[in-house]
From TrEMBL, chain A:
Residues 223-465 form the SUF system FeS cluster assembly SufBD core domain. Coiled coil: none annotated. Belongs to the iron-sulfur cluster assembly SufBD family. GO terms for biological process: iron-sulfur cluster assembly. Residues 157-214 form the SUF system FeS cluster assembly SufBD N-terminal domain. InterPro entries: Fe-S_cluster_assembly_SufBD (IPR055346), SUF_FeS_clus_asmbl_SufB (IPR010231), SUF_FeS_clus_asmbl_SufBD_core (IPR000825), SUF_FeS_clus_asmbl_SufBD_sf (IPR037284), SufBD_N (IPR045595). It holds the Pfam family SUFBD_core. Signal peptide: none annotated. It comes from Nitrospirillum amazonense. This is Iron-regulated ABC transporter membrane component SufB.
Automatic annotation (TrEMBL), chain B:
It comes from Nitrospirillum amazonense. PROSITE patterns: ABC_TRANSPORTER_2 (PS50893). InterPro entries: AAA+_ATPase, ABC_transporter-like_ATP-bd, FeS-cluster_ATPase_SufC, P-loop_NTPase. NCBIfam families: sufC. This is Iron-regulated ABC transporter ATPase subunit SufC. GO terms for molecular function: ATP binding; ATP hydrolysis activity. It comes from the Bacteria. Residues 5-250 form the ABC transporter domain. Belongs to the ABC transporter superfamily. Ycf16 family. PANTHER family: ABC TRANSPORTER I FAMILY MEMBER 6, CHLOROPLASTIC.
Length: 494, 252
């Protein structure tokens, strides 16, 4: 009998490899494995039928189909943005398939029902499930391609009234909440990629923290692109009601591919009065090879609305992956005394290109925002900080502080800083500091003279450069991010 | 006892530039303290850079043997892990990197090379406290980023503290006395004296006689125009004080 029990519990008993070990050992991109799972793909192409297909596959209510179709019609009238400093080959949106779901995923009730191949993938990624999750204190809503297959800790969270589930489940179980907030921060027609996502979003996560509740654990979602040529269109909606607190972690790795993969996610955050949301991301999608072949195209719209007085939203991101990163996590500071923050480390190595930054929109009185951006360019990487600070005429006492530092490694990379300051209130305080530096030979030699290898010296100096941002990450992420920075810069010193 | 450092006919130039070292011969035994003096531009700092393996210099002739190994073929970081320590004239700042963290990384890099177990945080802290006590310095520097915002004296003190932690076989002190007031000079010198050890050799590069009042060397050399033009025991330094370098330099 015990034999059977053991055989049926591969995920909870097998010692899953430490994800950090995976990152630091060996060379090259560590997560380049592809799981063989039958998929139930939408036929390539994008038209209204595709949108209907996706909605039908997911068994969605009519209002949501209409919402998607409205977004699709809007998208058809829009052109991709061309203002970013990104050199992107034209994307054939009709060539991609817009839906991919593991076949066996008709709603597994327990781990035993989950495809063992998927569980192995999670093991390779070191995602804590079952007991590991309990030990790590992390609840995981794991998104494998498009359909959520395992959710943990829901019961514990449910006791507190916290909803943490896949987006699809939220549509079924909590339609009123979804309907109320979906698109309320990022409207369907906000931008080309947000419109695309709104039309064809596959799945994602939904979080609702009720008034006065402090979420007792970090909420984590791991995303993974797996099916070839399948765009990923996650949709995340997170609401912290009055006086609630939640910290959310999002980490991404993707298998190695030769073809560019399209990724257009939308994340919406809503913070009500006295609520606080911390949203941290480690983004490690496949960056392409040294010559720029392959790699993920990552077009992300992330925005948080500080609706209530004294609400707080903090974005922290470590962007090391993707061939193309187009991403500006932003804060709409509506409530009086609301606080927005953006802490970012972006690395571009080899042929990677990143155009990333934030928008801080000061609407309410006495709103404050802090922006700390650290861009690191190596190889032939191009790294652009693009940030907007906007102070509207009603924002008495608004304050912003922006610090924007660029670090160059080698002679063929580029760093660019593009701040937009739009201040319509004479009493606003807006500070912008920017530096560009190179890792000096003297710094490298100093470290090496103390016995550190060139790689370790570089990692140390880079981690020091990023320290203010790494300090803002939850601890488990900070450790992972430090190792990731070193791996991302492999081969950039001779 | 066999030599710790044997330099024979060492000629070196700044990469793509002029020749600075024009044939250096020097033997250093364990336990000895050597002072290398000389006027500006004589090649003192180039010698320390070449010994430490700093990029930007080309050795054109000669050999350097360290504990029997060919030092010049070893990369800089390997030399360091094998026990060659350079106390920098101008220690560089590394923003955001905690001094303690840096030191522990350096210490463990050396221990790995020697096949020793890495020190955990507690063992490391114990070792730090012992050295602080030995050198009679406070722990105020440890919590700060490496050399960031340090005064000149603090930077030099930190170098000697690192030396105490890393326990090198060969320590090269490059103008460690420069920019120090008399109290700081005394503190740094006391530290170096406490680190004298029968197994360790110290090569001090200095401009000024006054350092040798505090750290009394076994041997004193005058480096002029890329060559060692005169050597003597500790009384030689006092003689130099009276006569100056000029006659030696002219002779070279």
């Amino acid at each position: 009998m015990s034999d059977i029990t053991t055989a049926n519990r591969p995920a909870s008993n097998a010692p899953a490899p430490d994800v950090l070990d995976g990152i630091v050992q060996g060379d090259g991109y560590k997560y380049g494995f592809v799981t063989e799972v039958e998929t139930d793909d939408a036929p390539p192409g994008l038209n209204e039928d595709t949108v209907r297909f996706i909605s039908a596959k997911k068994g969605e209510p009519a209002w949501l189909l209409e919402w998607r179709l409205k977004a699709f019609r809007r998208w058809r009238t829009m052109a991709p943005p061309d203002w970013a400093k990104l050199d992107i080959a034209p994307i054939d949106y009709q060539a991609a398939s817009y839906y991919s779901a593991p076949k066996a995923a008709a709603g597994p009730k327990s781990l035993d029902e989950v495809d063992p191949e998927l569980l192995k993938t999670y093991e390779k990624l070191g995602i804590p499930l079952g007991e590991r999750a309990a030990l790590a204190g992390v609840a995981v809503d794991a998104v494998f391609d498009s359909v959520s297959v395992a959710t943990t800790f829901k019961d514990k969270l449910a006791d507190l009234g916290i909803i943490f589930c896949s987006f699809g489940e939220a549509v079924r179980e909590h339609p009123d909440l979804v309907r109320r907030y979906l698109g309320s921060v990022v409207p369907q027609g906000d931008n080309f990629f947000a419109a695309l996502n709104s039309a064809v979003f596959s799945d994602g996560s939904f979080v609702y923290v009720p008034p006065g509740v402090r979420c007792p654990m970090e909420l984590s979602t791991y995303f993974r692109i797996n099916a070839a040529k399948t765009g990923q269109f996650e949709r995340t909606l997170l609401i912290a009601d009055k006086g609630a607190y939640v910290s959310y972690l999002e980490g991404c790795t993707a298998p190695q591919r030769d073809e560019n993969q399209l990724h257009a996610a939308v994340v919406e955050l809503v913070a009500m009065e006295d609520a606080e949301i911390k949203y941290a991301t480690v983004q490690n999608w496949y960056p392409g090879d040294e010559n720029g072949k392959g790699g993920i195209y990552n077009f992300v719209t992330k925005r948080g609305a500080c609706r209530g007085a004294r609400s707080k939203i903090s974005w922290a991101q470590v962007e090391t992956g993707s061939a193309i990163t187009w991403k500006y996590p932003s804060c709409l500071l509506e409530g009086e005394g609301a606080t927005g923050a953006f802490y970012s480390v972006a690395i571009t190595n080899n042929r990677q290109q990143a155009d990333t930054g934030t928008k801080m929109i000061h609407i309410g009185r006495n709103t404050t925002s802090t922006v700390i951006s650290k861009g690191i360019s190596a190889g032939r990487g191009q790294n652009t900080y693009r940030g907007q600070v906007k102070v509207l005429s009603g924002a008495d006492g608004a304050r912003n502080y922006t610090q924007c530092d660029s670090l160059l490694i080698g002679k063929r990379c580029g760093a660019h800083t593009v701040p937009y300051l739009d201040v319509r209130h004479p009493g606003a305080t807006v500070e912008h500091e920017a530096t560009t530096s190179k890792i000096s030979d003297d710094q490298m030699f100093y470290c090496q003279q103390r016995g550190l290898t060139a790689e370790d010296a570089l990692s140390l100096i880079v981690n020091g450069f990023c320290k203010e941002v790494l300090n803002e990450l939850p601890m488990e992420f900070a450790v992972e991010a430090q190792k990731l920075l070193a791996v991302s810069l492999e081969g950039s010193v001779g | 006892m066999s030599k710790l450092l044997e330099i024979r006919g060492l000629r070196a130039r700044i990469a793509g530039g002029r020749e600075v070292l024009k044939g250096i011969d020097l033997d250093v035994s364990p336990g000895e303290v050597h002072a290398i003096m000389g006027p500006n531009g004589a090649g003192k700092s180039t010698l320390s850079s070449v010994l430490a393996g700093k990029p930007g210099y080309e050795v054109t002739e000669g050999t350097v043997r360290y504990l029997g190994h060919d030092l010049l073929t070893m990369p800089a970081d390997e030399r360091a892990r094998e026990g060659v320590f350079l106390a920098f004239q101008y220690p560089v700042e590394i923003p955001g990197v905690n001094n303690m963290y840096f030191l522990r990384a350096a210490l463990n890099a050396g221990r790995r090379q020697r096949g020793q177990a890495e020190l955990d945080a507690q063992q490391f802290l114990k070792s730090v406290r012992e050295r602080l006590k030995l050198l009679d310095i406070g722990d105020d520097l440890l919590r700060r980023a490496v050399n960031v915002g340090f005064s000149g004296g603090e930077k030099k003190r930190n170098e000697i503290f690192q030396m105490a932690m890393l326990e090198p076989r060969l320590a090269i002190l490059d103008e460690t006395d420069s920019g120090l007031d008399i109290d700081a000079l005394r503190a740094v010198s006391d530290g170096v004296n406490r680190l004298r050890d029968p197994a360790r050799a110290i090569v001090m590069i200095t401009h000024y006689q006054r350092l040798l009042d505090y750290i009394v060397p076994d041997r004193v050399h005058v480096l002029a125009d890329g060559r060692i033009v005169a050597s003597g025991d500790k009384t030689f330094a006092a003689e130099l004080e009276r006569t100056g370098y000029a006659h030696l330099v002219d002779a070279a």
